[in-house]
Protein 1
Amino acid sequence: MNKSTNNRNPFKIYCDLFGHNYEVSKKITSHVKEYTCKCCKKELTTNSNGNLIELTPKYKEINNLLEDFYNRRMMYLKNKTFVHQLTNY
Ligand SMILES: [Zn+2]
């Protein structure tokens, strides 16, 4: 068999043949997550339509803002629930 002369990442070839092996690398919100391929380290994220797209620096920035916003909101909701529980007793 002819040895390939190109220097493509063997993991990339594996991904091309069998598909990427994504795992969640970061949870932004309950709907938006970042994924990284375990083989070739390609990164994806969920966009506002719920589709998977390539994680570009621009989307990383958006996700950081989104994560910050989401965490603040969760914190607010948690505090609200806590107060609510207290008033029930
Ligand atoms: Zn891959």
Protein 2
Amino acid sequence: MGGFCDLHCHILYGVDDGAQTVEDARALIDGAYSSGTRTICFTPHYNPFRKIDSAGAEETFRTFSAEMKEKYPDLTLCLGAEVLYHQKIADSLSRGACRTLNGTRFVLVEFLPDDDGQYIIQSLESVAARGYTPILAHAERYHSFLGKPKYALSVAEREFPIQLNVRSVTGENGKRVQKFCRLLLKEGAAAVIATDAHDPDYADARLDEGFRAVASRFGPEYATTIFCRMPRILLGLDPNG
Ligand SMILES: [Fe+2]
């Protein structure tokens, strides 16, 4: 396999509440690379109610990815966004106010923690009706889903990929959240595990511990699919690259 692929992180510095400085971003990339990650998609937040500088993110991406490619020639870096769901999401995407993942038709969509489960499902369907495939960001963060996992299974049945945060899978966000993640993993309903790294803490961008935990409990084949192959497919890349 070609290493882990982190589909969701806030490593691109100075654009959202993730890494603030280039030093923080470098430390996060060092942590990711040294633990086996070879593909990273930067997904800065897009919130339609806050002013953001999309062009600034692209410029930072160009400069930073050129520097990182020099240090790590076999590291693939892409640009995307984590888009807060809003009614005009498809219009925001088509006019370039926010972006899909690496120019594909896949969009990483997040909701507010208290949003209703049925509302989340209907909203994802409305994104799909406009020709995009929504990826549900950190499904374990929505209280309605935690209380009623069948909402998450309904999302998977509709073939909308579900992303879980690696720290939720390894238990760092509590037992209840971990139990929910394990249920989805047992059902084969989780499509992607990513870091959602924000913190300049060196370890925040690592996927290796989570990979080992999933591989030992659910088998290396599924672990390889959700840590390596599927996220690359969703970025429009060769799954075996
Ligand atoms: Fe995020």
